[in-house]
Amino acid sequence: MSSESKEAVQARKKSNLAFTFMSLEPERREAMAVFYDFCRIADDIADEPGRTDDQKRAELDAWRKEIESCYRVDGVPIKLMAEMKPVIDRYGVEKADLLAIIDGVSMDIGGARFASFEHLRRYCYGVASAVGLVSIKIFGCTHPRTPEFAETLGYALQFTNILRDVVEDKVKMGRVYLPQDELAALEVSEDDLANPAANPACQKLFRLCYYRCKHFFNKARRLLPDSERQNLKAALVMGAFYEEILEKIAAGGFALTVERTRLSKPQKLRLLWRTLREAKRPGRPRSLPGRAAVLGGGVAGITAALELGLEGFTPHLYEARTYLGGRAHSLTDAATGLTIDNGQHIVMGCYTGFLKLAELLGITDKLERQPSMRVPYVSPGGRWSELAAQPLPAPFNLLAGLFKFSELNTADRLAILRMGLVMRLEAVPADDETAAHWLRRHGQTAGSVRALWEPFCVAALNEPTSTASARLLHETLRRSLFGKSDAADIIVSKVGLSELFEPETSLFLNSIGGSLSLSSKIARVEVAEDRETGIQRVTAVETPRGERIEAELFVSALPWTALRSLLPEGSRLRDHLAAIPSAPIMGIHLVTDRPLYDNGADFVGLLDSPVHWVFDRTHTLPPEYAGKHLYAVISSTAQAWLDMKSDEIVTLLRTELEKFFPAATEMQIARSLVYKSRDATFAAQPATEPHRPGPKASPWSNFLLAGDYTATGLPATLESAALSGFAVSAALDG
């Protein structure tokens, strides 16, 4: 080994190892230097351009035989491993780990490709995790959890290395260390990796790689035994270096080039000092990672699963339907084959949780954002008006827009200005106060309620002001209309709601060994009591087919109406869920022969009508529908419509539309589809709030709750659903 170790020593001096070795005692430092030389030589054999593939395999086979000889007692002379043999004997290095390293570097021969994450993980185990398993022997670690920590940190380091070098590997070596199925799913070719800027999909791919790296870094943190922090300080320093490189890549917008992202010497010294200082302190208590079963594939379940993945758990997401989205999904009209959304779900600029989820998945390109808030309205008789924010700082952007909103008179505008002052002074309504009472208490006029507060309350809370919770309306207004200048921007999906989260969700879950299972309804929860603590825990859930799903952690992101039936009779949570009433929404989809209006508005609100919104979805029609128009008509608080037949609803709807749109009188309806959702949202009333549970309100210690109905402080919106998923992650270690 000594004949080639001079080059290895020089390489080591230039690498991050020079800093990490500084934290070791002299004897262990020397042993690690010898081991590093062994790893470098094996790697160089696989990379040597002057040898044929057969020659490389033969040389590595010779090293395998030498490793075998080190563990035999028959006196066979040891040549190649002469320097490594004392390290093996002194520190009890396992033969299997050294052989795994040789197997790993052997996979580089011949320009191997990796079909899937699991295939790539096997490679990373050899070239990184097995290195960690040898290293912890030299470090003197004895805790039984340390090997899993070393394996996991090895994955984190190697996956970061792969992301950092992805362009260089392709350009200089012709190698691709990314799963082929991920490239195919995101429509990235191997040639694109030589110049990622030419294909925007590369950034999505790199985000996926970042997510994978963070999963393993955070999993390693959870596995780190407190008693081994001092012994593992060299590994912790190396982890700190690579995680800093990873964050530097992300901060640069994943704009990777052939030039590696590097840390300066001052940055390395700062990280070295910080990590060694932290290693002397006890770590904060963390839940051990494991398999997590997330039940329900709506926004709450998707968010919870992805966040658990980031936190180091291995998430498996189960959805009863054949598509994701939960109550925000697409469906196919059997008569026409058209894919339409069950309702028109709007995102606002203040939906920080939902937008964080979209950013994580890299799906913001599937969303369309208004440059600023513009909400058109139409009154009976066809009179149009518009509430539009002006290009001014908040709150003047909205106030200026109010003075141009023709549905308001001077008294209405002054009343709204007064409410703006109330909001600024943080005058929070009483817990049991209705929105109508709160608005009256602060001098809101009938005109301001009709044109602004009532439409907003019905849209955001699915509840009229007469019965809506003032607390929820206040919080929604505080974040949106009275928030930052872009907080009230309206954002809609450019694709069907079920397409919004796929294939990205399944790709992200699969990228860390998790999964997405559709058509997987949960029928039963299996519970057992811990004999030592007496605490009840969920051990498994079952599907109607009898499939048993085991996990260490379970998250219910099911609707509260579905979860209720899974809970034991008499449980406190079941009683609370039974006390949460539902509120319906109805959507009517119309294919027409002519437009309802011709001013180009994407949507319009209807004042003084049981029909609240009309969305123009014509742009989603396939080419064979040229000349046709598609509208989604939404009625919130739709109790009055629920017991009507579809034909009756369409007849009444047409009569209603004719009051607002003159073109409706001549319009021919080629196809109509009525979608009623009785349990679209929980009823956002004052009496409901005390019954909304937190994430840890279940009777079982390892069964957490997510969903827009949980105690997020918001009504049943996409934002509430997303925030509940983040709350699950926050509750892990609380």
From TrEMBL:
InterPro entries: Amino_oxidase, FAD/NAD-bd_sf, Isoprenoid_synthase_dom_sf, SQase_HpnE, Squ/phyt_synthse, Squalene/phytoene_synthase_CS, Trans_IPPS_bact-type, Trans_IPPS_HH. It comes from the Bacteria. Gene3D superfamilies: FAD/NAD(P)-binding domain (3.50.50.60), Farnesyl Diphosphate Synthase (1.10.600.10). It holds the Pfam family Amino_oxidase. One of its GO terms (molecular function) is squalene synthase [NAD(P)H] activity. Residues 299-731 form the Amine oxidase domain. Keywords: Transferase. CDD domains: Trans_IPPS_HH (cd00683). SUPFAM superfamilies: FAD/NAD(P)-binding domain, Terpenoid synthases. This is FAD-dependent oxidoreductase.
